[in-house]
Each structure stands twice: as C-alpha cells, then as structure tokens.
C-alpha cells in the first residue's frame, strides 16, 4: 500500500502548529508536531494539506490547551534511532504538571551519567512536541534548559500544566 504524507496547521496559544502525518489504507498516524520557531520545519504545500486527517489531533490539542486533557492518545509514528525512540517513549511516563531532570531521565533509561548529553540531544530531536512532553525535562537545579521551540514556550507550557507558578509582574 502507498503511504501518503499529509500536513496541516493548527492555531494554538503558542502560535501556529505544524502537524505532519502519514495516511496508508485509510489509517492515519501522526509523525510530527512542530511549534513556531523550530528550525527545519517544512512548509505546508496545498497538495499535501489535509485538514480532515487531523481532526482527532486537533480535538485533543484543543482539549489540552483548554486544560481538559492531560495525556494524548493518538496513533504515533515518529522516525528516529532506536535510542531516540526509547528516550521519546520514556517521556510519556512524566506526569502532566510534573517535571524531571535530564539526569533522572537518563538514570531511568540506564544511561551512564557521562552520557547524559545524548539524552538531551535525543530530546532536542523529538518530532512530537507536546504529545511526547520533552518540555517537562529541566535542569537538575530547576533551570529551563533548551527547548526546540524556545525556552519561553517551555516556560509557558509548564506554567499551563501547573508545574511552574505564574511569574508575578
């Protein structure tokens, strides 16, 4: 069977999201969710656009941003190395409204302390932002380390989820 790549965009409080998926024999899987500012994000071409294929993704994203959804349940098909896939899968074990450190995540994965950087690199390559919540991984000292869509969006997401207190202005 032929697999066809489809894309759409979706408004969000963080800006316009880019959704990419694969359709094959009437089945749909989400392969990528990118936030504005992420390098290497492809444009949506008219011939690849299919808003209907993403109806469930959009429904769950709306519920997440409205505070009614704390865990996504979507068919996923991210592309990565076996190590990256293992790191991305482990992200689903970090509860909504909680954070973990890079070191703690590495320890749970059995990654030696000297190789924590590899965990950070895998997180930076996560193609399913929000759905696989790499924004919940922070520095051991509580600092907001890199995020593919910008640290300010990481802070927004963690505040939205209640893991950070809103900043007083």
TrEMBL record:
Alphabetical list of Gene3D superfamilies matching this protein: Methylated DNA-protein cysteine methyltransferase domain (3.30.160.70), Winged helix-like DNA-binding domain superfamily/Winged helix DNA-binding domain (1.10.10.10)
EC top class, as a word: transferase
All residue ranges annotated as the Methylated-DNA-[protein]-cysteine S-methyltransferase DNA binding domain in the record: 82-163
Signal peptide: none
EC number of this enzyme: 2.1.1.63
Start and end residues of each Methylguanine DNA methyltransferase ribonuclease-like domain: 7-78
Similarity comment: Belongs to the MGMT family.
Function of the protein: Involved in the cellular defense against the biological effects of O6-methylguanine (O6-MeG) and O4-methylthymine (O4-MeT) in DNA. Repairs the methylated nucleobase in DNA by stoichiometrically transferring the methyl group to a cysteine residue in the enzyme. This is a suicide reaction: the enzyme is irreversibly inactivated.
Protein name: Methylated-DNA--protein-cysteine methyltransferase
Organism of this sequence: Streptomyces diastatochromogenes
Lineage summary: Bacteria, Bacillati, Actinomycetota, Actinomycetes, Kitasatosporales
């Amino acid at each position: 069977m032929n697999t066809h790549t489809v894309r759409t965009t979706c408004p969000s409080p963080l800006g316009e999201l880019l959704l990419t998926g694969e359709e094959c024999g009437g089945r749909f899987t989400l392969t990528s969710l990118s936030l504005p500012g992420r390098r290497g994000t492809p444009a949506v071409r008219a011939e690849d656009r299919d808003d209907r294929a993403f109806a469930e993704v959009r429904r769950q994203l709306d519920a997440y941003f409205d505070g009614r959804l704390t865990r996504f349940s979507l068919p996923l098909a991210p592309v990565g190395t076996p190590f990256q896939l293992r790191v991305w899968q482990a992200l689903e074990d970090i509860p909504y409204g909680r954070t973990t450190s890079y070191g703690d995540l590495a320890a749970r994965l059995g990654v030696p302390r000297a190789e924590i950087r590899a965990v950070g690199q895998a997180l930076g390559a996560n193609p399913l932002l929000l759905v696989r919540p790499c924004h919940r991984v922070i520095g051991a000292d509580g600092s907001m380390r890199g995020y593919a869509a910008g640290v300010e969006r990481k802070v927004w997401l963690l505040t939205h989820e209640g893991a950070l207190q809103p900043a007083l202005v």
